[in-house]
From TrEMBL:
Organism this protein belongs to: Parafrankia irregularis
Domain Novel STAND NTPase: 154-247
Domain of life: Bacteria
Record region (Disordered): 96-116
UniProt name for this protein: AAA+ ATPase domain-containing protein
The Effector-associated domain, residue ranges: 4-95
Pfam families noted in UniProt: EAD1, nSTAND_NTPase5
Length: 648
C-alpha cells in the first residue's frame, strides 16, 4: 500500500528532526541509505520531509535495517516512535503498523499524489519549462482537449488511446488538463511520470479502486513493460478505465504493445481497439505563437519577479513565427523574461540559446576562473547529462547504480563526480542521484551537442552499457534522430560494439520510434560490421521478410541481401582471381560477374525501391522492371501465398 507521509507526519518529523544531520540519521536507521535520500537543498525542514514523502511514495528499495520490508513509511515512523517516545503522531502511526493510506487524507488520488520535487530558489531556468511545475497556464487553441474528454467519457468499460506528437508539442500539458477536468468529476487520475514506475502496491490499488480511472503514461515508447503492467491492472475492473499513452511514436506502438501482451487477449484487445490521436501542431502564422508566447512570458516574469511589457511581441524574441513547437515558444518566452539571458545568435534555436546560458551555471571542477563554455568542468557536466539521457534510469535504484558506474565510465574521481552530481541535482530539481533532464527535448539537445564534440563518448557509453541499457540508449537516440540527424554516428557507434545482437534489438525498436524509416537507414550501414557467415545475417534476413514488416525495413533488407550475396565472393575470392587472370576464361568470368551483378541489383532494387539499384535498359535508360511491376512483386512477397510457399 502507499508509503506517502501525511501532512501531520511531515510536520511532526520536521519538528523532531529540524536539521540535516539528525534527519539523515533517522532515515538511515529506518533503512533508507544515504544514496537514496533527498539532498538537503530546501529552505525548511518541512520541505525536506515532504521530499522524503515523495521518495517513499515512489517505492524505493530499503536496506536490511528496515523494520517492514517494502513499506518505507511504516519503517520510518516505527523508528521515529522509538526515538521520540512522547510524540503522539509517531505513536499512533506505529501502532497502526504497515499498510493503507495515511489516516485523515482524503480522496483516492491521495494514494498517487506525488508533487514534483521542491525546486531551489536559484534553480536552472529550464526547470520552469517543466509541465509538472504548472508555471505556464494551459492555452487551448484547438479541439484536442474536447476530443480527449469525449473519448474518456464514452460508455466503454475500458479503453486506451495514443496521444502522439513530437517532443515539446504540449502532450503532457494537455494530458494534465484532461486529468484536472476528470478529477473535478470524481475520477481517479494518475500521471505515471517517466522515471517513476508505479509500485506493485499502487497497481494493486488501481485494480480495486471503485472510482472511474484515467492513467496517463508519459514517454510510453520507453516503458513497454510498465505500460503492460498498468494495462493489466485496469482491465476487468467494474468501473470505467482509461489508459492514455503519451508518445512520440506512431500508431505502430499500439501494434507492438498488442503483440507483447499476448497471450493475454484482454490486454491485447485493449490495444487492438485503441485509436491514435495526433496532437494538433501550431497553426501557420504568428497568432498561435503570440498567444502562447504572451501567456508564457507573463507567467515566467511573475515567477522570476521580473517586469514585462504589455506588448505581446516585445523583447529580443519578437520574431517567433518560425518556431515549430510549443516548447520552442515557451523557451523563447523564458529567455525574454530572464534579465541576464544572452542575445540569440543568427539561426540559433531558443533551446540552444538557453543551453548556452545555463552552461555558465554548471559545476566546474576546473576552477572558477575557467571559461564556462569550454572548460573541462562544464565538459564533464555535459558528459554526465549525456550518459544519463542515454541510459535513462527508471527508478531510484537504477539511478544509484548508474551514479556508481559514472566515475569509471567518465574517468574521473568519485569525490569530484559526487560533488558535481549533487549540484546538478540541486539545479535541476532531481529526485534521484542522477536523472534525465526534463523537458526531455532539452536533455536530448545537450546530449546531441556533447556527442558531436566528443565523438568517442557514445562508444564509451555503449561498451559499459548492459543489453537493456543499450536498448534504452538506442531508443532515446532513435527518438531524437529526426530533430538531430547528427546523432546517426552515435547510433552506429552503439551498434558497432556488438552488431550481431544490437542490430536485431534495434529492429524490435521500430514500432517505438517517430521515424522508423530514417532509423533503419542509419542502422543498415552497420550490417557490414557483422562477420561474414554469421547466423545474425540470416536472422536479419528472416526479420526483414516482406510479410513481417513494412517499407521502413527496405534499406535493411537491401543491405542484408547485398552482404549475403557477397559471401561467395568472400569465400571464393582467390579462385575467382585466378579465373580472371586466365586468358581463356577471363571473358567468361566477366560475363558471369556482370550477369551476377545484374541479378543482385535487380533483387536489391525490388526490396528497396529507393536504393536506385534497379538495372536499366541500355537503349532508353528505363528500369528493366517498371515501378508498377515492382509494386506487384512486393505485394506478392507480402501475401499469404508467398508466406505459405516459404514455410513449405
Amino acid at each position: 500500500m502507499p508509503d506517502r507521509l501525511s501532512d501531520a507526519e511531515i510536520k511532526a518529523l520536521a519538528e523532531a528532526c529540524p536539521g540535516r544531520v539528525e534527519a539523515r540519521q533517522l532515515l538511515e536507521a529506518a533503512g533508507v541509505s544515504r544514496g537514496r535520500q533527498p539532498i538537503w537543498n530546501v529552505e525548511s525542514a518541512e520541505q525536506f520531509w515532504r521530499e522524503v514523502s515523495h521518495v517513499l511514495a515512489a517505492g524505493i528499495r530499503l536496506d536490511e535495517r528496515a523494520r517492514f520490508v517494502g513499506d518505507g513509511r511504516a519503517s520510518l515512523l516505527a523508528v521515529a516512535a522509538e526515538w521520540f517516545a512522547g510524540n503522539e503522531v509517531f505513536a499512533r502511526a506505529a501502532a497502526a503498523g504497515p499498510g493503507g493510506p495515511p489516516p485523515g487524507e482524503g480522496g483516492p488520488g491521495a494514494v498517487f499524489d506525488a508533487p514534483p520535487p521542491e525546486r531551489a530558489a536559484d534553480c536552472a531556468p529550464s526547470v520552469l519549462l517543466r509541465a509538472d511545475y504548472l508555471v505556464v497556464p494551459f492555452v487551448e487553441l484547438n479541439g484536442d482537449r474536447a476530443a480527449l474528454r469525449s473519448w474518456a467519457t464514452q460508455r466503454q468499460r475500458e479503453s486506451a488511446r495514443l496521444l502522439t506528437g513530437p517532443a515539446g508539442s504540449g502532450k503532457t500539458r494537455l494530458a494534465m488538463q484532461i486529468a484536472e477536468d476528470l478529477t473535478a468529476k470524481g475520477w481517479l487520475t494518475v500521471l505515471a511520470r517517466s522515471g517513476s514506475p508505479l509500485s506493485a502496491a499502487r497497481l494493486g490499488y488501481l485494480r480495486t479502486a471503485g472510482a472511474p480511472t484515467l492513467v496517463i503514461i508519459e514517454d510510453a515508447e520507453l516503458r513497454p513493460d510498465e505500460t503492460l503492467a498498468i494495462a493489466r491492472a485496469l482491465v476487468g475492473r467494474s468501473t470505467a478505465s482509461r489508459l492514455l499513452l503519451l508518445t512520440q511514436a506512431t500508431e505502430a506502438l499500439l501494434r507492438g504493445l498488442r503483440e507483447l501482451a499476448l497471450p493475454d487477449t484482454q490486454v491485447a484487445g485493449m490495444f487492438d481497439r485503441a485509436e491514435p490521436q495526433t496532437i494538433t501542431p501550431l497553426a501557420p502564422g504568428p497568432h498561435a505563437r503570440q498567444v502562447h508566447f504572451a501567456a508564457a512570458r507573463s507567467a515566467f516574469a511573475a515567477e522570476l519577479g521580473a517586469a514585462t511589457s504589455a506588448a505581446p511581441d516585445a523583447g529580443p524574441w519578437a520574431d517567433i513565427e518560425d518556431l515549430d513547437t510549443v516548447l520552442d515558444v515557451h523557451t523563447a518566452a523564458l529567455l525574454a523574461a530572464l534579465p541576464d539571458a544572452p542575445v540569440a545568435r543568427p539561426a540559433e534555436s531558443p533551446l540552444t540559446t538557453l543551453c548556452r546560458h545555463e552552461r555558465t551555471r554548471w559545476p566546474n571542477p576546473a576552477g572558477a576562473g575557467a571559461d564556462a563554455a569550454t572548460s573541462p568542468g562544464t565538459g564533464l557536466a555535459a558528459q554526465v547529462i549525456t550518459a544519463v539521457t542515454l541510459l535513462r534510469p527508471g527508478s531510484a535504484d537504477d539511478a544509484e547504480a548508474l551514479a556508481a558506474m559514472l566515475p569509471e565510465l567518465l574517468q574521473t574521481s568519485p569525490g569530484e563526480l559526487r560533488s558535481l552530481l549533487d549540484e546538478l541535482r540541486r539545479q535541476y530539481a532531481g529526485r534521484w542521484a542522477v536523472e534525465a533532464l526534463c523537458p526531455s527535448a532539452y536533455g536530448e539537445h545537450i546530449a546531441a551537442v556533447a556527442l558531436a564534440q566528443s565523438p568517442s563518448l557514445a562508444e564509451t557509453i555503449a561498451k559499459a552499457a548492459t543489453p537493456d541499457q543499450a536498448v534504452t540508449a538506442l531508443t532515446v537516440l532513435g527518438r531524437a534522430l529526426p530533430a538531430h540527424p547528427e546523432l546517426a554516428e552515435a547510433i552506429g557507434d552503439i551498434i558497432r560494439v556488438d552488431p550481431e545482437r544490437r542490430l536485431l534489438a534495434a529492429i524490435d525498436l521500430l514500432p517505438r520510434l517517430p521515424d522508423p524509416d530514417m532509423f533503419v537507414r542509419v542502422i543498415s550501414k552497420r550490417v557490414d560490421d557483422i562477420p561474414p557467415g554469421s547466423p545474425a545475417l540470416f536472422a536479419l534476413l528472416d526479420r526483414g521478410r516482406m510479410d513481417r514488416g513494412g517499407p521502413e525495413l527496405d534499406s535493411l533488407r537491401a543491405e542484408t541481401l547485398r552482404v549475403l550475396t557477397s559471401l561467395p565472393d568472400h569465400l571464393l575470392g582467390g579462385a575467382r582471381s585466378g579465373l580472371a587472370q586466365d586468358p581463356a576464361l577471363a571473358g567468361v568470368a566477366r560475363i558471369v560477374d556482370a550477369f551476377t551483378q545484374t541479378i543482385k541489383d535487380l533483387a536489391i532494387g525490388v526490396v528497396d525501391p529507393k536504393s536506385d539499384r534497379m538495372p536499366r535498359n541500355p537503349e532508353d535508360g528505363t528500369p528493366v522492371l517498371p515501378p508498377a511491376a515492382v509494386d506487384v512483386l512486393r505485394g506478392l512477397m507480402r501475401s499469404d501465398l508467398w508466406r505459405n510457399q516459404g514455410e513449405k
